[in-house]
Design brief:
The chain is of the alpha/beta class and 457 residues long. The protein has two domains: 161 residues, FAD/NAD(P)-binding domain (3-Layer(bba) Sandwich); 199 residues, FAD/NAD(P)-binding domain (3-Layer(bba) Sandwich). Helix content is 31%, strand content 23%. Strands 6-3-2-10-23-22 form a six-stranded mixed beta sheet. Helix 1 packs parallel to helix 9. The longest helix is centred in the last third of the chain and has 19 residues. The radius of gyration is 24 Å and the shape is globular. The N and C termini lie far apart (67 Å). The protein binds flavin-adenine dinucleotide. Flavin-adenine dinucleotide binds next to helix 1, strand 3, helix 2, strand 7 and helix 7. InterPro entries: FAD/NAD-bd_sf, FAD/NAD-binding_dom, NDH-2. Its EC number is 1.6.99.3. Belongs to the NADH dehydrogenase family. GO terms for molecular function: NADH dehydrogenase activity.
């Protein structure tokens, strides 16, 4: 296996993951590093940051997919960007193994490491889930969900068999947290807008189902807001099942813990996240939930004290919540924390490299939560202020429109919204995105045209 040594005289700061934490940390480091002081290397399997709070709006057709991601190379000028996955971390010897699909893995050494690999869906071993389910953590999933629902409507509009059509238009969402509610609500809004295009379909033909194990939704908002969200979804025709589990979805035949069974076309899993499993095989200290243990100054720590040259925050770390708000004393995994932890991490890392011994403690009191639930629909909570409907929706757009990293991306997103407001939502479904060669292969394999015999041969 090739080893890529940092031959330059300057040390390498390796950032594992170019998501929210990794991207903003790199931005801050690049801004504050002295000339030639260090090389900043960002490794991520994707060449872009995914702005996850916009995934539901991408699925709902309100934001163009490419505008909800931030390309690393053009927005982290001066950093070394490697498109690949860190498969193994050996912090004792200070190198990582990087895999790139279709190529030989290689080792990369470093002086300082920032663990910013985020979280992955916490999928449970439910029969059929691995085969039939889809999550909403990646831009590709948001694109696929939008196309899938729109294509199903087109197909169902020609179906004569009631059971077949009912199945094609039944969409199940598991998990009533923020991401789950936003995903369901945006797609439901999209489907209702699209159904008006068909004479053979009515809104009553579409069935959206929410399955939530707890007795309430959205733990991020108060009880009254959560109850309003459930009532609002039910008014929109969504079947909301609380205190209910998905027990089986083999062959898309849904079995719920309340005894109900039905066929569905789509199972979207949004029931929580867990720390990235790549950390399990590393020699870094983890808590019982697989998160890296860190101090409030974001230095990694084990039982013996600080682990030299290792830093972590965001969804893959157990960051102490000094505001006292977080469950179990730790920050909840969200972008609000990740984006604020990043500058603290960058500042402390630079301080450590420069031999300083005083570090800033991460402290942030939650600003609250805003969620979009389809056009002009939303819910928000900031302290004791509770907002619902169009005002909450506008707040959601304003907040996230500005929060997406870089002004260039903000401008594109606001541009999308203005165009959609003037021209209407784009209901185009793309076909065969995952099999782009299909038409060419069919043409290449088609029978040659019959040769005409020459008349006077
Ligand atoms: C649908 C949805 C909606 C959300 N809405 C909100 C919201 O409204 N408000 C809010 O505050 N939060 C929201 N969140 C949560 C928020 O997106 C995350 O908490 C935040 O992105 C965490 O930042 P992070 O940098 O820790 O992880 P991420 O942003 O997930 O970044 C992790 C990065 O690591 C990369 N990576 C993974 N494995 C490897 C590897 N082996 N090697 C190298 N790189 C790797 C990934 O590709 C990714 O780019 C939402 C999440 C989802 C899924």
């Amino acid at each position: 296996m090739a080893l890529i040594r940092n031959n330059a005289l300057r040390p390498r700061i390796l950032i594992v993951g170019g998501g929210y934490l990794g991207f903003v940390t790199a931005q801050n480091l690049l801004k504050d590093l002295g000339r030639g002081e260090a090389t900043v290397t960002v490794v991520d399997p994707n060449p872009y940051l995914t702005y996850a709070p916009f995934l539901p709006e991408v699925a709902g057709g309100n934001i163009e997919p490419r505008h909800a991601v931030v390309p690393l190379r053009s927005h982290l000028r001066g950093a070394e960007v490697i498109t690949g996955s860190v498969a193994n971390i050996n912090h004792d010897k200070k190198f990582v193994v990087i895999e790139q699909e279709g190529y030989e893995a290689f080792e990369l050494d470093y002086d300082q490491i920032v663990l910013a690999s985020g979280a992955v869906p916490r999928a449970l071993p439910i029969p059929g889930l691995a085969e039939e389910g889809i999550g909403l953590k990646r831009i590709e999933e948001a694109i696929a969900l939008r196309d899938h629902v729109l294509n199903r409507l087109a197909e169902a509009s020609l179906m004569e068999d009631d059971a077949e059509r009912r199945k094609a238009l039944t969409f199940v969402f598991v998990g009533g947290g923020f991401a789950g509610i936003e995903s369901l609500a945006e797609l439901e809004d999209l489907a209702r807008a699209a159904v008006a295009q068909y004479d053979t379909l009515t809104e009553a033909d579409i069935r959206f189902v929410l399955v939530e194990a707890l007795g309430r939704v959205m733990p991020e908002v108060g009880e009254a807001q959560a109850r309003w969200v459930v009532d609002h979804l039910r008014e929109r025709g969504v079947d909301v099942y609380l205190e209910t589990f998905l027990e089986d979805c083999t062959d898309k035949h849904i079995k719920l813990s309340n005894g109900e069974e039905f066929d569905a076309d789509l199972v979207v899993w949004n029931a929580g996240v867990k720390a990235n499993p790549i950390l399990i095989d590393s020699d870094l200290p983890l808590d019982e939930r697989g998160r890296i243990t860190v101090r409030a100054d974001l230095r990694v720590e084990n039982e013996e004290g600080v682990v030299d040259g290792a830093w972590a925050a965001g969804d893959n770390a157990a960051v102490p919540d000094l505001s006292g708000e977080g469950p179990g004393g730790f920050c909840v995994p969200n972008a609000q924390h990740a984006m604020r932890q990043a500058p603290v991490l960058a500042k402390n890392l630079l301080a450590a490299m420069r031999g300083e011994t005083v570090f800033t403690q991460y402290f942030h009191k939650s600003l609250g939560a805003v969620a979009g639930m389809g056009l002009f629909k939303g819910v928000a909570q900031m302290g004791s202020v509770e907002l619902r409907g169009p005002i909450a929706w506008a707040l959601h757009r304003l907040y996230h429109g500005y929060a997406i990293p870089t002004c260039e991306r903000s401008a594109r997103v606001f541009g999308n919204w203005v165009i959609n407001t003037v021209m209407g939502r784009d209901l185009t479904a793309l076909k065969d995105v995952d099999v782009p060669r299909r038409a060419f292969v069919e043409a290449a394999n088609s029978k040659p045209a019959p040769q005409k015999e020459k008349a006077n041969a």
